[in-house]
Give the backbone structure.
Amino acid sequence: MARGSTLPAPRRGIRGAIAYRGGEGMVAWAFHRISGIAVSAFLTLHVVSIFLVGANPEFYDSLHLFYASAPGKVAEVLLGAALLYHALNGTRIVVMDLWPALTAYHRQLWRIVWVTFFTLGLPGAYIILSRIWETAK
Amino acid sequence: MSGAPRARQPRPKGQGRELTYWLLTRYTALALFVLALAHYTVTHFVYDSSIQTAEWIKQVRWNSLAARFVDWSMLVIVMIHSCLGMRTVVQDYVKGRAQDVVLGLLYILTATLVTLGSHVVLTLPLS
Ligand code: HEM
């Protein structure tokens, strides 16, 4: 058998973890992992800040000013994009895992993820970002 | 478990604890599809996020027990899901003794967040 026909052994460490080794689920998997970690990081900050609503409302309000700023609105859109992709792709995974017969349609499911992502995401991003120039008026 | 990419975690063989975690990740995911997306819609589209001060949360968002019950349920469900998810991530990238330490920190963080979140949603006076 030709040597090049086998996949290289996974390398250790971060380089190994993110190296491209092909396979069509690669993009779906990488985005799912990155978005899952990003949303978990936000969730940690979010729960702590909501805790302050009871413990220290003035401090909460001062932190919350970020949501009114332009960088805050951009961050909101990025959070929404990560959550929306993760939710859509996650549902694709759950559908195939709980109803394996549907795995035959994985290409269609993958296409539905992206069509839905942009159909909902682009108008959504516009609504949030438009508040930047609306409040500036 | 290696760092090799895969489309998703394969269903664990047999009936053990790993299968329970795998299924729990999926059931919580289905619940979150509704809860988390609805939550984002309410907090970022229905209302402008920037008006949601501490006083507003007290007067408007959390002025009903039903709303608090939904948010508390979401807190518990999302913490189970993200803890199990981050557990897989840690197991992929951290090996040996260090893995036990990092997993321990993850569980402490999860328990702390459930405690802080439950505290505020259950004790903030109803207005
Ligand atoms: C909104 C609905 C959601 C759905 C449908 C969903 C679905 C899923 C599924 C099916 C997995 C397992 C993937 C696998 O086994 O390879 C997963 C992993 C994960 N999820 Fe979610 N999830 C959702 C929300 C969230 C939220 C809100 C968070 C964080 C707060 C989160 C964090 C994670 C993490 C960290 C992983 C591990 C990623 C990995 O192993 O690569 N998920 N999600």
User: Anything to note?
Assistant: Chain A has one domain: 21-136. The radius of gyration of chain A is 20 Å. Chain A touches chain B through 56 residues (CB under 8 Å).
